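WP5 quarterly update. Target: Cytochrome c. Source organism: Desulfosarcina alkanivorans. Length: 128 aa.
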Amino acid sequence: MKDKNKILAGLVIFIAVITLPFWFNMGKAAPAPELELTAKAKAAKVCVMPTEYMKAEHMQLLDVWRHNVVRNAERAFVNPEGKLFDMSLSNTCLDCHSNKEKFCDRCHDYASVRPYCWDCHIDNPKGE
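Structure tokens (predicted):
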């Protein structure tokens, strides 16, 4: 019986210690950053895919684009609305979202991710 109480007390202490960071940080998460769109992006009003899709899936889309361009020499992307785009990070995406610090970096820093896009692509292809 004595051992049962010790084990139970040990489990309660263990669970309390393990969950302490969650209790300490509850409600303190930083809100997602607001993105600053360029005048061109605001004027276009439409991205290659819907905004919610791009927020969640843009890296998968860019991976498919990279594969199709490099492996299959395909350069054309047709979105669900039937609009044609060039599969190009530098000439399509960065044409509207040209300020990497105010657009890309804000979310990537918030999510603590370091994409490897910039290993090959320059972040300001038009020198703006």
